């Protein structure tokens, strides 16, 4: 009985080792398959974005068709007064159409502490190559409004991130809806990734915040210079 029982232990040990080895190899194979699948999905997503920016002729044509803009909106004070000893300014911000400065595409009201208000825009500039026909063109996306006593991160949004700005509703009409969504999401999300932007044919995405001490009875017209600088012009409210 003793002699017969001796080989049993090594057999059990071998079986355990073999099972363990098979199980371990199975886990490794499944892991590699999973990683290959994820890698393929990431590659496909990156490749899709790259194709959209670098190789999509419809997008290139849409960029080439951009015209240089001048007036991009205005702000005016609705009321200004103190509450509990603190000054507040309620203003109306209006965004105008690219092809018609008298047409409103967005209008919002904000109440800001104080009378010095910052208007923050995101500017997307493209290189002057054959696609852009040698003329400077850029996209201007209003981002947020905030007072000088507020942190910029606490500002009130104008346009929502990753969404198509209303003033560019017709900009990518030739692209499919998924491609349009991919474009705007990339513009907002890649703002802090200059190397990727350069690879996709975008010169830069940067913020341009201007501020003004606001007074009732005046209209602050926002314009953009040829080099992409946002600045306000003050005119009487007739």
Can you tell me the residue ranges where pLDDT is under 50 for at least 5 consecutive residues? 1-24, 26-47, 130-134
Mean pLDDT: 74
Binned, the helix content reads: 25-40%
N-to-C order of helices and strands? HHHEEEEEEHHEEE
How far is the N terminus from the C terminus?
Answer: 112 Å
What would the principal axes of the Cα set say about the shape? elongated
Task: Describe this entry's structure for a reader.
By secondary structure, this protein is of the alpha+beta class. It has 2 domains: 2-55; 63-236, no CATH class. 33% of the residues lie in helices and 34% in strands. The protein has 5 helices and 9 strands; from the N terminus they run H-H-H-E-E-E-E-E-E-H-H-E-E-E. It has helices at 2-5, 8-55, 57-64, 177-189, 194-199, and strands spanning 71-83, 86-96, 104-113, 116-125, 138-147, 156-157, 204-213, 218-224, 230-236. Strands 3-2-1-8-9 form a 5-stranded antiparallel beta sheet, with no helix packed on it. The chain is elongated, with a radius of gyration of 29 Å. The N and C termini lie far apart (112 Å).
Which features would summarize this protein structure in a list?
single chain, 238 residues, alpha+beta, 5 helices, disordered N terminus
Topology of this structure?
Elements: H1 2-5, H2 8-55, H3 57-64, E1 71-83, E2 86-96, E3 104-113, E4 116-125, E5 138-147, E6 156-157, H4 177-189, H5 194-199, E7 204-213, E8 218-224, E9 230-236
Antiparallel strand pairs: 1-2, 1-8, 2-3, 4-5, 4-7, 5-6, 8-9
